Amino acid sequence: MRPSRSVLALALVLGATAAGAPSFAAGPPHASTQTQPAEDALTPAERMATRFPQKVRVGDLVGLPLLDFDDRTLGFVTEVARTPEGGIVLVVPVGGWFGRGGRPVPVPIETVAILGRQIALLDIPRDDLPKLAAWTPGAGQSVPADDIIRIAITRR
After folding, report:
1. Fewer C-beta within 10 Å: the chain N or C terminus?
2. 123, 37 in Cβ contact below 8 A?
3. Where are the domains of the chain?
4. What is the pLDDT of residues 11-60, one digit of tens each?
């Protein structure tokens, strides 16, 4: 007795799935938690350079939400400042209700990327954000709203 063509085709498909071909029943992997940055020898500035930094007006960043990897709002940018060392930080209050209020912390520009009209936190885990030192107005100089800086871009 010879097997029919449909039985042979089914056996071929099942054999290919068992042999390591992708299974569509499992679906694509989900990005439900923030991943840690790859352990590499890159500094934050070098990592930012690989993310195609683009020019942006400082005034356009103020008021944008800072999101974690799960698109939860951590806070809103209240100020862009320059540290005494020459670095640029986004001042974001964290620990408040619904992204408002809370203790202002400086988030280095090298650890974030712009995502449309939002800012994505890439290189700092969500749980470590409240552990950053508090930002005091005298700790740096506020960058004027008309100045142009560079920020990395990303997509999801």
Report:
1. N
2. yes
3. 44-153
4. 555 554 455 544 444 444 434 445 555 556 788 888 888 888 999 999 99
The residue whose two tokens read 């790859």 is 38
From residue 61, alpha-carbon distances to 11, 56, 77, 89 in Å are 57, 8, 7, 11
Which residue from 27, 23, 25, 19 is spatially nearest to 11, judged by alpha carbons? 19
Tokens of 7: 């039985």
Reported pTM: 0.72
Residue with tokens 């390591």: 20
Interacting residues of 144 by C-beta distance below 8 A, sequence separation 6+: 58
Q: Spell out the alpha helix ranges (H) of the chain.
A: 5-18, 44-49, 58-61
Q: How far apart are CA 85 and CA 62, in angstroms?
A: 22
* Spatial separation of the C-alpha atoms in residues 116 and 110, rounded to whole Å: 17
